[in-house]
Specification:
Elements (H helix, E strand, L loop, with lengths): L1 H9 L3 H7 L3 E11 L23 E3 L5 E5 L6 H16 L6 E2 L23 H17 L1 H4 L4 E6 L2 H10 L6 H27 L4 E3 L11 E4 L2 E3 L16 H6 L7 H12 L4 H7 L22 E4 L8 H8 L3 E7 L11 H16 L7 H17 L6 E4 L2 E4 H23 L4 H13 L5 H12 L3 H17 L5 H24 L4 H12 L4
Antiparallel strand pairs: 1-3, 1-4, 1-5, 2-3, 5-10, 6-8, 7-8, 9-10, 11-12
Helix pairs in contact: 7-12, 7-13, 9-11, 12-14, 12-15, 14-15
């Protein structure tokens, strides 16, 4: 580890290292709009926010009542969080008496058909987005889609990649080197992602309305709540964004960009009889009857990303141009935090991701992939159990011992970031994670269950109380006139952009879908 640090950073000045270690980071936070009674809002997406099809900061995810708040890319945790807070404050100016739900697992839900799909207008692109969501509802149920998360987008600078390319003496082009090393990062992330689930999982309990009529193995906590005693992130388990069909029918490979693209494209082009039955129920209930309607349906803890030009196939562009950034998708919304995430979590994520990039990353074979899945599910359901064992190359390992070993290996990278950037917080965050390993009650999941017990309240009431506190905190500092005008401009521009997209359509929706399907076939 010391040799690796020295070889890459040791001969450079502090100023050069600060330039190398300035990461790009963006945050996407999903949140349900709920009524004062804690029920899913039935109102449409507020017109004040403009077009959810084209607005860069305020859109929707699955449901019309499910906001997605997005930041641009920023060089520091503070600047990203400041923008995210500003977006939160703005949406509260257009929500009347509604509240942003504070947790990943949803509020009180009615029947599936009471959950409205997000509507994006009559352009082919807008219809595609709604049709895709309809497909998700038919495949997994609309209730599952109301689960919310925080997504963390992370990139390293061009200067960093140039320096690492030189330090490792690579003969590849810089683009190929960068892409290969991003895949190294992602394989290690998957191998060690159970640690993040343990440290930041914040969904150990659910409202009983969420599993109404479904088979489950949860236990009664009280008359309104189900839980598992040692659970960390039920959102990441069988109740949430896991698909048995995906796990059984496909194996997306992270060993190289070519394998990743071809295995994803193969899933998008492979019909599944179970989904073909949906076709008999009506027209345009899903984008297609294949294993995946698109790469967006791939439920994974981390994804390779690149922003394609409008109209270009995402996977084709990724294959041609390489990885631009990675998207971390396993983070629960922390109900104790108004934004669902804070700077301490971001600093640990940055350190963890740098560590995953810079240490040896073995290729994933069937055994490693199976262990990733098994370790994930074990920590989801039993992460805080003192007896939990995980698998590492066929050998059982005690979670706490393995976690402490990883955190000790991560420490030099935290020290590097703190000393180079001259910003405190990296070592403090690492210390917090060490304490969480020693004392599981300090994890968000542990705190939530202890608070439910201490306060004698169900999960619904706890999450609603947190949501109301966050609303009060976020609305206590009103938007300035300048800020409001900036958002008014964004909203009006987004409406014009949607109208332009609608006016530009020349093909029928059927032709549009056929063109999309055809664009995946050369990638298989």
């Amino acid at each position: 580890m010391t040799d690796l640090l020295t070889a890459t950073f040791g001969s450079l000045s502090d100023a050069d290292n600060r330039r190398l270690l300035t990461f790009g980071r963006g945050i996407e936070r999903e949140a349900l709009r709920v009524t004062t009674e804690g029920k899913l809002a039935e109102t449409p997406h507020p017109a004040r926010f403009g077009s959810k099809l084209t607005h860069p900061l305020v859109t929707t995810d699955f449901s019309e009542a499910q906001l997605e708040l997005i930041t641009p890319v920023f060089p520091t945790p503070e600047s990203a969080l400041d923008k995210l807070e500003e977006v939160h404050r703005y949406v509260y100016t257009g929500m009347s008496d509604e509240v942003l739900w504070s947790a990943s697992m949803p509020c009180v839900l009615g029947e599936d058909d009471s959950i409205p799909l997000a509507y994006y207008g009559q352009s082919n692109l807008g219809r595609l987005k709604t049709t895709y969501r309809s497909g998700l509802g038919h495949r997994y149920g609309r209730g599952m889609q109301t689960i919310c998360a925080v997504h963390y987008n992370f990139s390293l600078s061009d200067a960093f990649w140039t320096r690492l390319h030189e330090a490792e003496g690579s003969t590849e082009t810089l683009k190929d080197f960068t892409t290969r090393r991003y895949f190294d990062l992602m394989r290690n992330f998957r191998r060690f992602s159970w640690l993040l689930t343990y440290l930041f999982g914040a969904s150990p309990a659910v409202c009983k309305s969420f599993v109404r009529g479904k088979a489950h193995t949860l236990q009664d906590f009280d008359e309104g709540t189900l839980f598992l005693p040692y659970a960390t992130s039920l959102r990441s388990g069988n109740l949430g964004y896991q698909s048995d069909i995906q796990a059984e029918q496909m194996n997306i490979c992270y060993n190289s960009l070519e394998n990743y693209v071809s295995s994803l494209a193969g899933a998008i082009c492979t019909p599944l009889p179970e989904y073909e039955k949906i076709e008999s129920l009506g027209d345009h209930l899903q984008v297609n009857a294949n294993l995946l309607q698109s790469e967006a349906e791939f439920y994974s803890s981390i994804r390779a990303k690149r922003v394609p030009p409008p109209g270009e196939n995402f996977l084709a562009h990724l294959l041609s141009e390489g990885v631009q950034y990675i998207e971390v998708r396993l983070l629960d919304v922390n109900p104790y935090l108004p934004l669902g995430i804070d700077d301490s979590e971001i600093r640990f994520l940055d350190t963890f991701l740098l560590y995953c990039l810079m240490v040896d990353s073995p290729q994933h074979d069937e055994q490693r992939c199976a262990e990733v899945r098994k370790n994930t599910m074990s920590v989801v359901q039993e992460g805080r159990s003192p007896a939990l064992k995980l698998l590492d190359q066929g050998k059982e390992r005690d979670l706490k011992a393995w976690a402490n070993e990883l955190l000790a290996d991560i420490r030099p990278w935290a020290e590097l970031l703190e000393s180079t950037l001259s910003v405190p917080g990296y070592l403090e965050s690492l210390g917090l994670q060490i304490n969480r390993v020693s004392n599981p009650s300090l994890t968000p999941s542990g705190r939530i269950l202890e608070d439910l017990k201490a306060q004698g309240i169900p999960f619904f009431r706890f999450a609603m109380n947190q949501a109301l506190q966050h609303k009060e905190s976020l609305t206590s500092r009103p938007m300035t006139e300048t800020e409001l005008k900036e958002y008014e401009t964004l909203a009006s521009n987004s409406v014009r952009e949607q109208k332009a997209i609608e006016a530009a359509d020349s093909a029928s929706f059927e032709e549009y879908l056929a063109g999309i399907a055809a664009s995946y076939k050369p990638l298989v």
